[in-house]
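Ribonuclease HII, Geojedonia litorea. Tokens?
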Amino acid sequence: MNLNANFSEFLLECGTDEAGRGCLAGPVTAAAVILPKRFNNSLLNDSKLLSAKHRNSLKPIIESEAKAFAFHHIWPEEIDKINILNASILAMHKSIEQLNPIPEFIIVDGNKFKPFNNIPFETIIKGDQKYLSIAAASVLAKTYRDAYMDKIHAEYPMYNWKQNKGYPTKEHRDAIRKYGPSPYHRMSFRLLPEQLKLEL
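Tokens:
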């Protein structure tokens, strides 16, 4: 399934997306990508629909062919302070801010966004399965975040972040139960289902 190249008529249209929103540990990471009009790649799709091997093979292609790309991590302390939705949008803003040239139009995966520097934008549900630049941003956000989770896995191997990337798998929750949370965990998240039961 080939995705659409552009949503708007603007030449410099940027797609943005985030990864790691539902994780219990690690940053939420966003990326922003401006692709050339002629860009095409039949493999490129929403990063969640691609294998790690395909994501990693697409990353250098996107980076070498994009007119501009950037990514940004928002760390757990910040997520705990401003909440995950605001952190996701902030990560997107910080990614877009780094782009050179500056985009003339922004397309965003999902339905929530805040205006950025008066640049017109459109939110698109399942945008990462419809538009190449959002799919490209989803691949970069995911690969940069995964690489970071692999790195901190070495520090705290008991949570097996290499495998679960911080998502709430049974194994991850069992490790939190056994070892308690790490400095990389988001303390504002329900790390364990039983957290809601107060022992009186």
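The mean pLDDT is 94.
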